[in-house]
Amino acid sequence: MKNTKPIIRIVGLSKCFTSANGEVSALENINLEIREGEIFGIIGMSGAGKSTLVRCINFLELPTSGTVYFAGRDLAQLSRQELYKVRQSMGMIFQQFNLLMQRTALGNVCFPLEIAGVNKHEARQRAAELLDLVGLTDKADAYPAQLSGGQRQRVAIARALATNPEVLLCDEATSALDPATTRGVLSLLRDINKRLGITIVVITHEMSVIEEICQRVTIIDDGQIAETGTVEEIFSRPKSQAARRLVYPAEQQIEQIIGNRSIRIVFDGSSSFEPIIASMVLEFKHTVNILFADTKNIDGKAFGQMVIQLPETDKIADGMIAYLRGKGLTVEEVEGVV
After folding, report:
1. Integer distance in angstroms from the first to the last C-alpha of the chain?
2. Helix (H, G, I), strand (E, B) or coil at 68
3. What distances in angstroms separate CA 53 from CA 202, 228, 243, 315, one per listed residue?
């Protein structure tokens, strides 16, 4: 993946809107490369500018300055007809599905093919193949009102694939779904990426979505890029304040850590899922206070994070940190999460 050339290159992109109170800057000097065949995440809090950015990627919103290159072509230099062709190469999936309620699942997938001038028989054949790909062969004649949220999003994914796009733009595609359905949709997107080689750009405010599916991620904060890197790098060693806010789940933020030294332990799959903390407590004969824990066991490997308060004695605390690092864990001292 490292040597793959960029399919999307964003250079010096800024976007301003005019409001009743004057000019508002939504994006400022965005520079970004998304490589062919990767699953790339764009994450930020509500209002950070990520949805504006995705609309600038396919020029549904025209940048105030800067530009976007798609497969080496400067979108700002294309004619309307050329831009329309490029947009056919970028399928879009939305939070609210945007299906046509008066059309069946098959009819919804046929719709972009009809607009592209594909004859009815070929369109229906292609749509049937795509419904099979997303696991909805038996729902071809069902209307959106008869489908669950997850099934509607699968129809939307099939529709987005109808014109054989090179890139799939997913704007908060799982935000309206429950956790189990979200995992199913993300698994489908991962499968599509592997089987078809389509580049997928995931726009979300949920770090769990990024961890589940993406290889690299950029964090947008107040219209600017706060940090870009592999998901492992960002999760294990967040550098920016924006990244730290996202890595620590908002509903379980530690407002203030008072007194003892505290550490954040990252389980990135490099260690086995054994009772490491319990073993450490027995080793040093001192207890610790677990402030936050979000870990999971995947195939016997530990993933997730934990924040603990260490004993007051520096010698014991230092020894515990060395012990944990000796187990192959990423450990960082924290003073608080705000």
Report:
1. 35
2. strand
3. 12, 15, 18, 49
